[in-house]
Design a protein that fits this description.
This protein is an alpha/beta fold. It is built from 12 helices and 6 strands.
Amino acid sequence: MANGSRQAAWEFFGAELKRRREDAGLTQVGLGERVFVSGGYIGLFEQAIRKPQLDVAQRLDEVLHTDGIFERMCRKLIKDQPYTEYFAHVVELERLATKLCEFEPVLIPGLLQTREYTRALCVASNPLASDEYLEELIRARMDRAELLNDATRPVYWAIVHEAALRVLVGGPATMAAQLAHLAAMAEERKVLVQVIEFAAGAHPRMGKMMKLMEFEDAPPTVYTEGVASGNLLDEPAVVARVKASYDLLRAVALSPETSLALINSAAEDYRRCASTT
């Protein structure tokens, strides 16, 4: 399903939700209380600005006595998109965010990856996959990255550990191109990049990626990821703790200027290595 058709389908979902809610004599706040989200979120669902997760769709059916219609629509829309179910909502939220703050302990963040770097990661995770399947995965990630070329792109702050610069993904030439791309994105002021050196030692989010997303008209949300699973967290106390840990990461990371110099130096090392092989 193309992006335009998928958005139209979500708009139908929202319109149907509004109709069923009003038929039940419920306000947005009243329905939100019954399905354990805020009234503001119900409004965002109805406007197709935000998409409900599957468990919320199931609770909407229970409260509105809609015989599973919202669950079925939600499952269909999730199935017809190129991302895993747990990540599909993150992609939607990235597009709506006014600010993204991300930390990656081992990899270059997905929004900043080159095609060849992404391909090497996909092959490593799917060594027996067909070229067609790999191309679908790569295209989905490249489509996400277009977010940063948009005039209305969010403020994007990325902190990576030095491991992301040193772990060889796809060979020296691939790494040289990837780090050159990362540096170019920083130089073009599309992203603010900081690096945590190996020498910094222990830091607040050892081995744990995180993405903090802020919005103009909705509470901030945190995304964390495990093995074949992901969590979207918007409980205020949890978000506050994550924000505090991100502030600590900024404090232990190199300055943006020094980080850029380290990235360029690592890229040059890979270029020399590639030229001798």
